[in-house]
Amino acid sequence: xxxxxxxxxxxxxxxxxxxxxxxxxxLAIGGLDTITSYDLSLxxxxxxxxxxxxxxxxxPAATLISVLSAITWDVSDLxxxxxxxxxxxxxxxxxxxxxxxxxxxxxxxxxKKLSIKEREHAHTDDLxxxxxxxxFYEQARNEISRSSKHKRPFTLAYINxxxxxxxxxxxxxxxxxxxxxxxxxxxxxxxxxTDIISRLEGAKFAILMPETKNENAAGLINKVQExxxxxxxxxxxxxxxxxxxxxxxxxxxxxxxxxKMAEDLMNAAKEAGKNMVNYMTxx
Length: 283
Description:
Blueprint: H1 3-6, H2 15-35, H3 47-56, H4 59-79, H5 88-123, H6 133-150, E1 154-162, H7 164-171, H8 173-190, E2 196-201, E3 204-210, H9 214-235, E4 240-248, H10 255-272, E5 277-282
Parallel strand pairs: 4-5
Antiparallel strand pairs: 1-3, 1-4, 2-3
């Protein structure tokens, strides 16, 4: 089992709450540490609030809790009646404990960041930075289920960059890759945060637009089309864009069926001329 799964927590906790809980846990452990005397070491218990804060907040908050834990541990140790042969010993011990706490806090923070990056990488197309096909299908199935249950509309668009091969052959694959990346970023910046853009394969992209009827989808797709055409014109790239758009307003279809419908519309748009868009509404 991955550490990210072990430390997973449903929902998102508010940061002030996590810090407060960590602070109270440190005080509670310190009180218990004092009562049990120095014969019974409770040092490991201080790691729980440190791990908690480091996982959910990281950074300065985790460092603060680590320092607080080390101070509390040292005060509790002295208050419990532990007598040392030299006054420097408790200071040295406190520094060692603080070092251990800081290392744990830093390690948990790094693990959390790596976990987030791993999760994002699993959902992202490496070249374009938008969603990959696997994540898109997952989100599309969820949206189809939600739409069917609540009788809400959604729209699926299928965009093909036509003649990308010509760019690859004449200017090089690195230019073609750059074109794909820029096109994906323009789609992302032209749409809403709730819309999901995915690279399906090659020069083909899909866009999922929740809560979107045909007329609203047309406005969004026209905006995307306009920005894409401006991009290729500025760069002198001889490519065009063909798009098929399917809006569901009550009908229930599988994602594979919807993709096929949108692809057929896209192919028809490609045959009809350059930079054409075909629309269909399923009621």
